[in-house]
Amino acid sequence: MNSPTNLDPAPLMQALSGLRVNAALVSALELRLCGHLAPGPCTTKELGARAGVSERGTQALLDVLVALGACEVDGGVYRNGPMAHAFLVPGRPGYLGDEEVAMFRAAFASWAELTTVARSGKPVHENDSPQMLEFWTSLTPAIGRRQRPLADEAVRWLGLGEGAPSLLDVGGGAALYSLALLRLNDRARATQLDWPHVNRIASEEVAKAGLSARFQMIDGDFRTTPPGGPYDVVVLSNIVHQESEASAHDLMKRLHDALRPGGRVLVSEFLVDDGRTGPAFPLMFNLNMLVNTSGGRSYERAHLARLYREAGFGDPTFQKVGPVSTLAVAARA
Ligand SMILES: C[S@@+](CC[C@H](N)C(=O)[O-])C[C@H]1O[C@@H](n2cnc3c(N)ncnc32)[C@H](O)[C@@H]1O
């Protein structure tokens, strides 16, 4: 075994300073620094005046943006680099600010409780608490931005361009799957089951796309609200991980009964490999579920396959999509 002097603590040190970078980026977004830089390069003094921020604060935040490669500096004059221009300027199509800021602010207090949560195994807030209900309004548009291409890929992977399929999206958020399907197939119909205030966000998205005539909503708690049906396909995208094994089992069973014979359940998840050796993202994401849910987790592939079988489905087929997600699909046996 290596002696401690041969080991490099750099990865751990970098992780320990992660909060600094995260907090700086959030403040830079809140203060719209890159937005104020967008009209033209300037000094910290000028930028501070444009943004209403102290020169000292402006300098410290710009230092981090330069360190991240988002902004550039030459002779004391700062400009947005390509990354800042694309992602950190409000109003740009790729802007990823406001919901990310809201999520950081909402999560911050919970992360401060992590040691206590780890000791007790109990989350800071329950799934239907006012804090979590508010959290979904920030999270769902943010996930929407990241995962829309994945939903498009998934409906094609399922072959839903043919016929007149009906789809139920459980906890559908910003209507990613409904929109993907309704755009792909003009004979398809989609239903979303989610909390009422989130369904309102979804219905606005669907209305903007001019597809409301083939979209329906069921307002309520998906753990107890009848899902309607029968459907050809049910989607659980980024949902199973927030449920305990018992609750995921109940949900899959109820959804099994809401499908036509031969109907399929599609799960999109951050799955960890069997034996929990990786990949890194789902291993770390498990911590979000510890803090924010009473029984959720990053499930292993074999574990998800068992949940399918126990609910009356055949063995799932898995397909890795995008950088962090895996699709799984199985038909009602
Ligand atoms: C992590 S987001 C996933 C959103 C969407 N499926 C996606 O992948 O983009 C979780 C979604 O489930 C909804 N949700 C969570 N718990 C719920 C419950 N008990 N009943 C109904 N909806 C719930 C939230 O409102 C949110 O839209």
Please describe the structure with a list of short key phrases separated by commas or semicolons.
single chain, 333 residues, alpha/beta, Arc Repressor Mutant, subunit A, Rossmann fold, 9 strands, binds S-adenosylmethionine
Please write out the topology.
Layout: H1 10-16, H2 18-30, H3 33-37, H4 44-51, H5 55-67, E1 71-74, E2 77-80, H6 82-87, H7 98-111, H8 114-120, H9 130-157, E3 166-170, H10 176-184, E4 189-194, H11 196-208, E5 215-219, E6 231-237, H12 245-257, E7 259-269, H13 280-292, H14 301-310, E8 317-321, E9 325-331
Parallel strand pairs: 3-4, 3-6, 4-5, 6-7
Antiparallel strand pairs: 1-2, 7-9, 8-9
Helix pairs in contact: 2-5, 2-7, 4-5, 7-9, 9-10
Residues 127, 136, 139-140, 143-144, 147, 171-173, 176, 194-195, 198, 221-223, 237-239 line the site of S-adenosylmethionine.
Could you walk me through the main structural features you see in this protein, from its secondary elements to its overall organization?
The chain is of the alpha/beta class. The chain folds into two domains: 4-96, Orthogonal Bundle (Arc Repressor Mutant, subunit A), CATH 1.10.10.10; 109-331, Rossmann fold (3-Layer(aba) Sandwich). The chain has helices at residues 10-16, 18-30, 33-37, 44-51, 55-67, 82-87, 98-111, 114-120, 130-157, 176-184, 196-208, 245-257, 280-292, 301-310; strands at 71-74, 77-80, 166-170, 189-194, 215-219, 231-237, 259-269, 317-321, 325-331. The strands form two sheets. The chain has a seven-stranded mixed sheet with strand order 5-4-3-6-7-9-8, with helices on both faces. α10 (176-184) links the parallel β3 and β4. The chain binds S-adenosylmethionine. The site of S-adenosylmethionine (SAM) has 20 residues, from α9.
